[in-house]
Amino acid sequence: MTSQRIGVSTVRLVVNDEPHELEVDNRMSLLDLLRERLGATGTKKGCDHGQCGACTVLLGGRRVNSCLILAVAASGASVTTIEGVGDGTELHPLQRAFLEHDGYQCGYCTPGQICSAIAMIEEAAAGWPSAVSADVGAAKVSLDGEEIRERMSGNLCRCGAYVNIVAAIADVAGGRA
């Protein structure tokens, strides 16, 4: 990340399996880089303070609020946005479940909800406990409704489609909502 100009750095990252090298202002967030410079407008700007989850993307496979990450801090990483979760011809199972369970309502929060849910299912499969996990030493966490709601609590839905969102996630995770 070197540049000849003060306050500007070269950022190299892979977004949705496509490599990019861009010069960016050191103050630019990953969210703004994705939306303004790379056209990944599926990632939404909600609160711009890390409180709503609309900007959630996968950074190295882990969910992050992209409005809180500086683009220069993400240099060298792999980023997956909602545009990259399917395989190009088929929807991701969570995308299909959101459609089947009417978990999208207005759709503004849906990209962040889906990216967060993808990582959350992986976290639970890896045995990461939450505040409501019954057995913090379990090798695998059961994703029932309470677990899903706790783990998705950083993603807000202004339409109130939580019941449908939880059902969609439970459907894919094999849990019971």
TrEMBL record:
Source organism phylogeny: Bacteria, Bacillati, Actinomycetota, Actinomycetes, Micromonosporales
Domain 2Fe-2S ferredoxin-type: 9-85
Gene Ontology molecular function: any one: 2 iron, 2 sulfur cluster binding
Alphabetized InterPro entries for the sequence: 2Fe-2S-bd, 2Fe-2S-bd_dom_sf, 2Fe-2S_ferredoxin-like_sf, 2Fe-2S_ferredoxin-type, 2Fe2S_fd_BS, Aldehyde_Oxdr_Iron-Sulfur, Beta-grasp_dom_sf
Pathway: Alkaloid degradation; nicotine degradation
Coiled coil: none
Protein name from the UniProt record: 2Fe-2S ferredoxin-type domain-containing protein
Keywords associated with the record: 2Fe-2S, Iron, Iron-sulfur, Metal-binding, Oxidoreductase
CDD domains (UniProt xref): fer2 (cd00207)
